[in-house]
Amino acid sequence: MKNLSEIWFWFTLLFCPIGILVGIFQLASLSGFWLYSDTAISMHELLKSGQLVMILVGFTCACVFADTLKKAKIRFRRKYN
Question: Using CB atoms within 10 A of its CB, is residue 1 exposed (0-12), middle (13-18) or buried (19+)?
Fold first, then answer.
């Protein structure tokens, strides 16, 4: 169990920033389309394109990454003090 939590800790430190960037990119793409398009965006189009899912992935990664950073701060403070 210790190894699994260690792998998850480092995986989230490496993977979550990528997920956050993907979510921000999708949000910016959707905002640009919404601002400059003459047509309305339906929820069906969002779900079909996967943009909404990727925005939610980015939000989830941001929450998990913030929690992991708190754990890293405690872990490395205890290790180096």
Answer: exposed
- In the numeric block, which tokens belong to residue 8? 């998850």
Q: What is the mean pLDDT of each run of 10 residues along the chain (81 residues)?
A: 82 91 91 80 74 90 93 82 65
* Best CA proximity match to 11, nearest among 51, 71, 53: 71
- The answer to whether the CB of 52 falls within 8 A of the CB of 23 is no
Run of H or E including 57:
helix 51-80
Chain center to CA of 3? 24
